[in-house]
């Protein structure tokens, strides 16, 4: 059976091998007689699953030992509150807005700290990278979203805050491109990612936090979201989303078999290159993002006439190309081509786009 | 294949039929070409899953239309903060402590309100129901845990606060016995339950809240945990734990096939009766909880000598009776016999207990 290609922005496609393994193990994990869903989170079976997942994740992303790896819940939108609850100390925080996600982070943080807009690309409709950053001298941290899922804007390199005159730790929301490129941890204080784009099922949030940043939560921070409590309890203070952690672990093992993050980055460059090159040379489709910060993961594009959108989507569905509709705030189309999307899926999409343009162009 | 009987307190056993259906649908849900894990939470496929789950849950528990049903994350320990963040208005709140869980709720709430200990059974080691409640005249709400998973203490009837002279809404943490007995909603303002005991996988929290109690969150309440935001967005403000909702939905359909909550209650009375009757007449095993408030779901029991515990557990494992070790704070054994535990599992346990007592008694 050939499965359709699923371009959903998240929850998103998972590797077929991973789904097949999960189905095969559903009633009996490794002779335990239990589904992973049925295991006590404190039993030795689940603890081995959790520990292996953390070991593989640390290896894949080369996470330094002075970072905690936390398995949390609530996704990126919950972290928009949880990060300032833990790191802001109620002081100044700098935000760089490059699209919807960082704009939401900025807005939510105002509940807990003096959130300062250090730079924004709102004037160009979130299509370029803001060039002038006005950083506070005494910010508790600087927040950026390193890949804007909706607007398709991606940092190709992490900002070097020291070179910009700031000693503050950098916080990155890397939900929608984690594990598609390496992370320069020397520039990062905290990274978070909802799992449902490039890692596994919705309901799991990964947090990587430098040890020295933990232990300063505001008094109103719920215990279950205090990084210190979570770290001290090895992400077992509250019952973790055990099945989502298991699925993420299967994805980590799949990533290792594919050549790890370096393998994924090479594949992503090829896939995104193919799609952007076609769009740019088509004379039909348009992507509005500055070429210097186009996302390798989320490719928004527009047809010459919105009246053709429904016809484009219906034809795509007929060819097994699913979930290509753009976000309502941007319109048009969006192809999310995460790690689990094979090159063949992008080739099939480009083939269909070519055919559609020839028929309607 | 006969699966072992899994007595885990949570995450806990799920019905075999449900796991089989999930395995069969893992790669292709209803011809969609997608796993449920891969679906956009805003797409029509997942929306139909979510809506059906809510409809079935409302029907099973006879939830009145003036209650919101919310699908949230973070489990009971997160709700220990989220409830006072939403309902306390920073004022007085009454807590009735009947075991570890309500004690934790009481402690966490102090961050947000004037938490008052209205009654406690700590003096008798959490084995009875405290008889004298000292309720505040002006409490924002009264919190009880209607089934204490660790101590095995269960309210056989919800307290009638009006009869006790309080006009405050009652908040119940019913995590570990939801869907095993009806809920008298006329006595309830809010009910919450982590899913991982009687509903589905860990990572999903169910919240039922009377409409008039929503919209009063403290300013420091994260948007993702503000009941108003969650309700207005039909639990889609942040990406919900989609797969856990799907699994819960399969459990709801299974519950309906078993005769619903009434069917479950009859089965629970039979299962718990069998186990307690044997314990009480064995002259070997002991359960210390007052018979008037013994839990039908969680049955802690003790051997005459703790030195025999390891031998008991090893023999149980050999007979396919899993996860019977008691919570470390109580010791001894604990059999959690939730909805998914068939009568045959309890019969097998009693058979083994009888055999062990005969050999060692």
From TrEMBL, chains A, B:
Q: Where in the cell is it found?
A: Cytoplasm
Pathway involvement? Answer: Cofactor biosynthesis; pyridoxine 5'-phosphate biosynthesis; pyridoxine 5'-phosphate from D-erythrose 4-phosphate: step 3/5; Amino-acid biosynthesis; L-serine biosynthesis; L-serine from 3-phospho-D-glycerate: step 2/3
Annotated positions binding L-glutamate: 42
- Residues binding pyridoxal 5'-phosphate are 101, 149, 173, 196, 238-239
| Catalytic reactions of this protein | 4-(phosphooxy)-L-threonine + 2-oxoglutarate = (R)-3-hydroxy-2-oxo-4-phosphooxybutanoate + L-glutamate; O-phospho-L-serine + 2-oxoglutarate = 3-phosphooxypyruvate + L-glutamate
Which residues carry the post-translational modification N6-(pyridoxal phosphate)lysine, per the record? 197
Q: What class of enzyme is it?
A: transferase
Where is it mainly found? cytoplasm
Q: Which PROSITE patterns match?
A: AA_TRANSFER_CLASS_5
Q: What does the UniProt cofactor note say?
A: Binds 1 pyridoxal phosphate per subunit.
- Which CDD domains does this one have? PSAT_like (cd00611)
Keywords carried by this UniProt record:
Amino-acid biosynthesis, Aminotransferase, Cytoplasm, Pyridoxal phosphate, Pyridoxine biosynthesis, Serine biosynthesis, Transferase
**Which family, according to the similarity comment?**
Belongs to the class-V pyridoxal-phosphate-dependent aminotransferase family. SerC subfamily.
For this protein, the record's NCBIfam families field holds: PRK05355.1 (NF003764), serC_1 (TIGR01364)
Q: What is this protein called?
A: Phosphoserine aminotransferase
Q: Which organism is it from?
A: Caldimonas mangrovi
